[in-house]
């Protein structure tokens, strides 16, 4: 079988594809079959240096352009991404194994939304004027300089754009290191940005494992680091960035609660729980994997959930009818299988699923455990796979305390017909991104991010601008300077 998935070269630096075969080779595996679809080389120190040098050189003149000029490039890139949605979606499916049914409506489109949104915003970025009697201060909103983006493997196109778009809008240069598991899509983002008119050196992609990420984070030429990844990686990257007093955005993991009250619309609650556990085969950071179901609706919930899971079309991710694909890698599949065994051993009731599918590729069944208790490992640790833990509850105060009893704080959701309760519960959640009668929406207009161990900073929306720019205060005196001597 031949693929057109092998990129022209491993890296994209200073406006062009670049290869260095001295770098450690690594393979890109198609998760639906286990076949190798590309071989890339991890960045050598020479490649990392080349990317940093290009970014540092290009950033100043990009920052000197007007916001309108910068924004025009981003908006052109957004249009190109939409025009090429089909090809980009197919590549996202090769990279991740997620069904085309998902990638064709979520990945390049969400990346394009970010480019369009921040492209439109670039011209509106201003400082302010502060009058102090006859004297005054004005603030300049300035870029940070060279930003490093480090991606996870679940949304490679989206993450490349969610970090790149606000960084570029604010006048920074970006060096993006994709996850070594899904390295292909970010290269296309770089290609499109440059075709859209981005000057060379402003969006560079370098490949590699954690050591390449670490070399970027610790380089003194880097001013900001934005990571999407797990909490343990976040701890390391945050600490390394702190050494150089660098700005950070940390988008980390979660074990988010989803509370279904007895008055919830059952079909919507089941739909929310499906979206919050099985979309992208459960490989979504904000998933509501601790599903607290009121005792009065537990049996009907489990019944309807099992029935609807029976409608999942599991198979070839390229088939537009397929709605549930494989895990991203054999490694991730085995991690999830390990958690399923733990769940069984801890005494949770396996309602449905729990097995690897008897076919090529890394397919797991959508899995639901009921009678899960708060202390079980499957209720405490992020699994990052299609495993839902259903926990029972009886009253609001009790469930709120249990929902918040976690080190994580990425997302949380509630289904109820009682609006006052919905808002009260949302206010009580210790989480950055909350949902009432819906789950896992992530429009570019709204801030996205976590509290507690799930992260620092926010992506998307006007809030992201604060994390990719800084204010300079300029004091201006109109009268004489008073000095003591
Ligand atoms: P990971 O933490 O293993 O890796 C993330 C990235 O960090 C990779 O590119 C990796 O190469 C790099 N990395 C690893 N060690 C590093 C180091 N010492 N210095 C610099 N970079 C280093 O995460 P993953 O397995 O790729 O992704 C899954 C995790 O990401 C889950 O925990 C998930 O919840 C989280 N995630 C969070 C969000 C969010 O927005 N909050 C979104 C998607 C995924």
TrEMBL record:
K(+) 2 binds at residues 245, 452, 455. It catalyses: betaine aldehyde + NAD(+) + H2O = glycine betaine + NADH + 2 H(+). One of its GO terms (molecular function) is betaine-aldehyde dehydrogenase (NAD+) activity. The modification Cysteine sulfenic acid (-SOH) is found at residue 285. The active site is at 163 (charge relay system), 251, 251 (proton acceptor), 285 (nucleophile), 459 (charge relay system). Binds 2 potassium ions per subunit. SUPFAM superfamilies: ALDH-like. GO terms for biological process: glycine betaine biosynthetic process from choline. CDD domains: ALDH_F9_TMBADH. Its EC number is 1.2.1.8. K(+) 1 binds at residues 29, 95. Pathway: Amine and polyamine biosynthesis; betaine biosynthesis via choline pathway; betaine from betaine aldehyde: step 1/1. InterPro entries: Ald_DH/histidinol_DH, Ald_DH_C, Ald_DH_CS_CYS, Ald_DH_CS_GLU, Ald_DH_N, Aldehyde_DH_dom, BADH. NAD(+) binds at residues 151-153, 177-180, 253, 285, 382. PANTHER family: ALDEHYDE DEHYDROGENASE-RELATED. Dimer of dimers. Involved in the biosynthesis of the osmoprotectant glycine betaine. Catalyzes the irreversible oxidation of betaine aldehyde to the corresponding acid. This is Betaine aldehyde dehydrogenase.
């Amino acid at each position: 079988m031949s693929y057109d998935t092998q990129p022209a070269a491993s890296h994209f630096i200073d406006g062009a594809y670049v290869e260095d075969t001295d770098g450690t080779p690594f393979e890109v595996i198609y998760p639906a079959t286990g076949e190798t679809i590309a071989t890339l080389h991890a960045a050598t120190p020479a490649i990392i240096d080349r990317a940093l040098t290009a970014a540092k050189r290009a950033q100043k003149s990009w920052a000197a352009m007007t916001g309108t000029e910068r924004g025009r490039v981003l908006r052109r890139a957004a249009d190109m991404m939409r025009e090429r949605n089909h090809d980009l979606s197919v590549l996202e499916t090769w990279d991740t194994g997620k069904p085309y049914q998902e990638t064709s409506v979520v990945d390049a489109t969400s990346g394009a939304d970010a480019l369009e949104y921040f492209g439109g915003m670039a011209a509106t970025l201003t400082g302010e004027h502060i009058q102090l009697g006859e004297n005054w201060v004005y603030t300049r909103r300035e870029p940070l300089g060279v930003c490093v983006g480090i991606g996870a493997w679940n949304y490679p196109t989206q993450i490349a754009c969610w970090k790149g778009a606000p960084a570029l809008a604010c006048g920074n240069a970006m060096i993006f290191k994709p996850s070594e598991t899904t390295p292909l899509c970010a290269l296309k983002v770089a290609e499109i940005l440059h075709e859209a008119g981005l000057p060379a050196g402003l969006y560079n992609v370098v490949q590699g494992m954690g050591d390449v990420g670490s070399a970027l984070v610790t380089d003194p030429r880097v001013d900001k680091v934005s990571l999407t990844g797990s909490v343990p990686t976040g701890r390391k990257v945050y600490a390394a960035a702190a050494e150089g007093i660098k700005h950070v955005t940390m988008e980390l993991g979660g074990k988010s609660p989803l509370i279904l009250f007895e008055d919830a619309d059952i079909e919507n609650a089941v739909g929310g729980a499906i979206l919050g556990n099985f979309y992208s085969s459960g490989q979504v950071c904000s998933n509501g994997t601790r599903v607290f179901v009121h005792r009065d609706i537990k049996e009907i919930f489990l019944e309807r959930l099992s029935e609807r899971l029976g409608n999942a079309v599991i198979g070839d991710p390229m088939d537009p009818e397929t709605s549930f694909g494989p895990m991203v890698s054999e490694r991730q599949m085995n991690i999830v299988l390990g958690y399923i065994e733990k769940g069984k051993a801890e005494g949770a009731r396996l309602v449905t699923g729990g097995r690897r599918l008897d076919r090529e590729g890394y397919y797991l069944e959508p899995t639901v455990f009921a009678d899960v208790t708060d202390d079980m490992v499957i209720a405490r640790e992020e699994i990052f796979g299609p495993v839902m833990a259903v926990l029972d509850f009886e009253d609001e105060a009790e469930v709120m305390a249990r929902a918040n009893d976690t080190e994580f704080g990425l997302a949380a959701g509630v289904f109820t017909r009682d609006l006052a309760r919905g808002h009260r519960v949302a206010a009580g959640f210790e989480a950055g991104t909350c949902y009432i009668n819906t789950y896992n929406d992530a429009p570019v207009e709204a801030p996205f991010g976590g509290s507690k161990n799930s992260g620092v900073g926010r992506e998307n929306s006007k809030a992201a601008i604060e994390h990719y720019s800084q204010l300079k205060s300029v004091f201006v005196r109109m009268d004489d300077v008073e000095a003591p001597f």
